[in-house]
Structures are given as structure tokens and as C-alpha cells.
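Posting this for the archive.
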Amino acid sequence: VQLQASGGGLVQAGGSLRLSCAASGSRLTVNEMGWYRQAPGKEREAVATVSRGGATNVRDSVKGRFTISRDYAKNTVYLQMSSLKPEDTAVYYCNADYISYNSRDEPVVGRVWGEGTLVTVSS
């Protein structure tokens, strides 16, 4: 199971970016998907998550500015970021909780992380 993230870049304060993250693998059921970020010198923190049922959790500091959504058919999660601030500068990582099946047809439960995409917001 792999995650491929894209959409990071350099933007001025007040601008917008949309991150995408697609999960791939065989016989894959994706449950919760989420976005995390890690700024220089800081610990990784959760930004937003969305359950398989569509319930979302969004970090207080980005509420009203960031929106998480997913395309179930494409196993893809999106993070629409608006009114970006310099303090949003970080490497953004996506993750996914999943169920797949091994060669013996046994279910395998796991969590996978994407490689990260850099978002830089200039003042």
C-alpha cells in the first residue's frame, strides 16, 4: 500500500493551495485518512482527518481556512487550504488506515504515510 501526495509549493500569505493524496494497492479498503504537518523544529501535528463515514476533525488553528475531503472511488484525500499564513509553513504528510489481504487471503490492517509535501507561505 502506498500514498502519493502532491500539491505543495510556495504561496504568499492569504493565498490558497490544494493538496492531494492517493492511496494505491490491491484489495484495499481505506478507512480513516488524514493530513499532518511538521514545521521546522516542531513535532508533527494533526491538521485534519476524515473517517470512512465522512466525519471530519479539523485542527482549531485552521478551522474555517482548511477543508478536508475525500473521493472514495479514487481512494484520495484532499486538503483545500485558504487564507494561508506564514505559520502554516511545514511539510505536510498524509496518512491512511487500511485493510488489505496477504497471499494467504488473510486481512492485514495497517497505517501508511505519504512522503510529505512542502508548503511554504511567505509573508
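Residues 22 and 72 are 10 Å apart (CA to CA). The longest strand covers residues 90-101.
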